[in-house]
Q: What sequence folds into this?
């Protein structure tokens, strides 16, 4: 055919975006939220504090944090009709489409919240999302295991409430394990934002058409589900299980990856921006050991993961391509040890990423020069040609 030109497959026409939220230096493995290093936030802050920081730009005073926490507490319930929404899904549905549909449905339950220029409504939608996503996520899990939904208990923190709604039963009190709650809180901080990644760019693109916050976030959840993005944390566990079930030979698996046999990849490795160790992976790895020991989780998969990392980090194929573990490589092991099924891992990623998505959507709408997103293309199709009747083709 005429008019075709070959393009370097790596060529991507990306419009650069200005943002003041998150800074990444991929070469040095630096990640900062509003200027604060991720290592300090992961160690010293709480997820709700970091959510406040990302969305409003500054760490909250104790009074601001109290007000913010209190506002969120008052919105953790779902509308009773929205609770029935879950009945329409098959029990074996993957929780990601259930969660993204329920989030999108919030646009129907709060019709006044649709105008992105109504700052009061945007504030209310922000609080509603932060408050209701944990409830929606817990209900998606309960639906998948056929257990009754629990109403939120607002005497608990956001993370504790989520754990209780997920693993608790109406018939008996649920004992919060503070170490698990603290570990999950830290993991949510690590996932809270990551500048213009695929799902955040989706939220910005959808939001740039003046679509409301709920529907924009729902778009981000859908993008996150992809195994090359947030879905990687589930894919890592499936990969480790596959290696274990085929005898645990990591070198054989690495050989397959290097030969690109059946397109197999080392899931949880590589990153478009980090050409060094993902700082989040380093933090997760440090805690993975202690949390897994505490939970007495099968550390066979952890052992395979560590052997796999060791094999990859010393192999020229990965070194030349600057492939290092990313945030997804170890998180799945911890989530599984906490009792979450693999299919909930990406839902947990979405729970963490929510404040980042909201912050980017609000930052974009605060720009008076905002224009609708319209990526350009390089046309490589046919040059002009005339229509031929069906008998002449
Ligand atoms: C997240 O953007 C973000 O910030 C995302 C994220 C966030 O917080 O939002 O950090 C979260 O999505 C982390 C990434 C999770 N995904 C995975 O772990 C899936 C496995 N990783 C790869 O699919 C890949 O590394 C990507 C998608 C993450 C990045 O891909 P790039 O930057 O497009 O790199 P590439 O595909 O061009 O790869 C360059 C080379 C290729 O080899 P050659 O063609 O040069 O021979 O490296 C190879 C790739 O085949 N390669 C891998 C590999 N990743 C890249 N080979 C084996 N295993 C891998 N994981």
A:
């Amino acid at each position: 055919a005429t008019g075709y030109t070959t393009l370097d497959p790596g060529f991507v026409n990306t419009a650069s975006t200005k943002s003041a939220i998150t800074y990444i230096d991929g070469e040095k493995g630096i990640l900062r939220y509003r200027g604060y290093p991720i290592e300090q936030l992961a160690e010293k802050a709480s997820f709700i504090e970091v959510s406040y920081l990302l969305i409003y730009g500054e760490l909250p005073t104790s009074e601001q944090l109290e007000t913010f926490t209190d506002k969120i507490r008052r919105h953790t319930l779902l509308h009773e009709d929205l609770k029935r929404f879950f009945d329409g899904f098959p029990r074996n549905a993957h929780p990601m489409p259930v969660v993204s549909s329920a989030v999108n449905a919030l646009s129907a339950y709060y019709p006044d919240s649709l105008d992105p220029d109504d700052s009061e409504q945007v504030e209310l939608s922000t609080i509603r999302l932060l408050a209701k996503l944990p409830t929606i996520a817990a209900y998606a899990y309960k639906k998948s295991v056929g257990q009754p939904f629990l109403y939120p208990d607002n005497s608990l923190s956001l993370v504790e409430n989520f754990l209780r709604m997920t693993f608790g039963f109406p018939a008996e009190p649920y004992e919060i394990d503070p170490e698990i709650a603290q570990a999950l809180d830290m993991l949510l901080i690590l996932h809270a934002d990551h500048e213009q990644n695929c799902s955040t760019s989706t939220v910005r693109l959808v939001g740039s058409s003046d679509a409301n916050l709920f529907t924009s976030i729902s778009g981000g959840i859908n993008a996150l589900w992809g195994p090359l993005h947030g879905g990687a944390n589930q894919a890592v566990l499936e990969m480790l299980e596959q290696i274990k079930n085929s005898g645990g030979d990591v070198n054989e698996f690495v050989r397959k990856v290097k030969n690109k046999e059946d397109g197999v990849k080392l899931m949880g490795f590589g990153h478009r921006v980090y050409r060094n160790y993902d700082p989040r992976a380093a933090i997760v790895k440090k805690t993975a050991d202690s949390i897994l020991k505490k939970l007495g989780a099968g550390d066979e998969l952890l052992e395979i993961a560590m052997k796999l990392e060791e094999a990859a980090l010393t192999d020229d194929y990965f070194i030349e391509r600057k492939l290092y573990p990313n945030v997804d490589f170890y998180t799945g092991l911890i989530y599984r040890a906490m009792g979450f099924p693999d299919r909930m891992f990406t839902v947990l990623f979405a729970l963490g990423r929510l404040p980042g998505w909201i912050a980017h959507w609000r930052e974009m709408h605060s720009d008076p020069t905002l224009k609708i997103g319209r990526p350009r293309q390089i046309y490589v199709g046919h040059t002009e040609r005339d229509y031929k009747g069906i008998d002449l083709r």
Remarks:
- Residues 1-15 have pLDDT under 50 and may be disordered.
- The beta strands are 22-25, 30-33, 36-37.
- The chain has 17 helices and three strands.
- Residues 194, 197, 228-229, 232, 257, 265-273, 321, 323, 326-328 surround s-citryldethia Coenzyme A (CB under 6 Å).
